[in-house]
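Re: tryptophan structure - here you go.
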Amino acid sequence: MTPDKKTIFSGVQPSGNLTLGNYLGALRNFCRLQDEYNCYYCVVDMHTLTVRQNPEELRERSYALLALYLACGLDPDKNVLFLQSHVHSHAELSWVLGCYTYMGELSRMTQFKDKSQRHADNINAGLFTYPVLMAADILLYKSDLVPIGADQKQHLELARNIAERFNAVYGDTFVVPEPFIPGNGARIMSLQEPDKKMSKSDTNVNNFVLITDPRDVIIKKFKKAVTDSGAEIRYDENEKPGISNLINIYASVKDVTRQDVEKEFEGGRYGDFKKAVGESVADTLAPIQERYAEFISDKTYLESILRRNAEKASEKAESTVREVYEKVGFILK
Ligand code: TRP
């Protein structure tokens, strides 16, 4: 790790197949940051247990997510790509931080309220303390910046509060992290219900495009995407949420502005536009899919990366835990 660079930490849960939204909103940005920052990109497998998982599937998805990180262009020698459960410090710091977090704070988390409604049969304590584990992830590495989607802002705000509270009692220990919310492409919406975020856990498969969807499936899903009444290809989130989402996707994939898209398709028809969006997405994902297929078929290689990177991550994480243990009054071994 280069000392004069700032540190970035982000995590993705291996709880489903990743979508185009995850790619444009997260993974692609991770790649753009890898030269300028010291980056820790974690497969946060421990977080997934808050919802019941099938063990074999969880293992497979964890490999798959690492393979996707690599396929998207993350260099395993430049970034620390690792599995959360491989570094025991996450669980350790999480316990300590939990004692500096209030029940009231955790009760206010909108994701907790949301998830406890959706999984009413399994409102477990982990679901409640989930943001504390997330705070531990971030604070362990003294991270300066955390790339996150808008839905994680509240959790990051909590991590900042915990860090400040701890620092106030024990003196400067944690770096208080800043959110890093990328501009264009950060919020890709559902193709059928464009007022909802595109989500990998959606039950209707036509709502999302997976990074690994075959070309014909991608084109078909865009063909079926809901548009709006009227015929103009014009950006207007309120009046035309469907078309606006497609404009965002096309602009993001082509790396152009919304105005450029409006100009390119001025006077055009919805059908042709949807076809063009589908094709551009398929073209963008094709090389990633090819590399993904290679990586996922080589578990030995993936395991070697995990082993090497877990060591790198542990070094930093363990030194933070020692510092914390000493400050709170534990006898160091
Ligand atoms: N909670 C995040 C999500 O569901 C995943 C996550 C866990 C995370 N730990 C993190 C993201 C630390 C950023 C930093 O999307």
